[in-house]
Amino acid sequence: MFGAFVLALLVAGLSWLVRARKISPFSAVGRGMRNLTDPVINPIERVVVRRGGNPVQAGWWLVILVAVIGVVVLAIAQFVLESGRRLALAAALGPRALIA
């Protein structure tokens, strides 16, 4: 999850540099950055623009989305692992503990 978050930060940062014109979008570096980031950013940008937002902020919405999904996935994984551990312990203690 941390790797996905760092990757989202990198994509958002590169996209922002080109979209905010900190790096010329017509230079070789700018075109390369756009080729890397546009497939990820464009769908989010469409949603942001449809809801009245600034398209330059689409990358940061990506970071927020990845962070929220990461927290949810980690919470679900923790719940499943803890439930499995408790079920295994109850199974080891016998049928009464398993029913309880």
* CA radius of gyration: 22 Å
Q: Give me the number of helical elements.
A: 4
Low-confidence blocks of residues: none
Number of strands: 0
**SSE sequence, one letter per element:** HHHH
Rounded mean pLDDT score: 89
Assembly classification = single chain
Largest sheet: none
Distance linking N and C termini? 35 Å
Supply the helix-strand structural class: mainly alpha
Tell me the β content: under 5%
Give helix % range: over 70%
Q: What features would you highlight for this structure?
A:
100 residues; mainly alpha; 4 helices
Q: What features would you describe in this structure?
A:
This protein has 100 residues and is mainly α. Helices cover 82% and strands 0% of the residues. The chain has helices at residues 2-19, 28-50, 58-93, 95-99. The longest helix has 36 residues, at 58-93. It starts with a helix and ends with a helix.
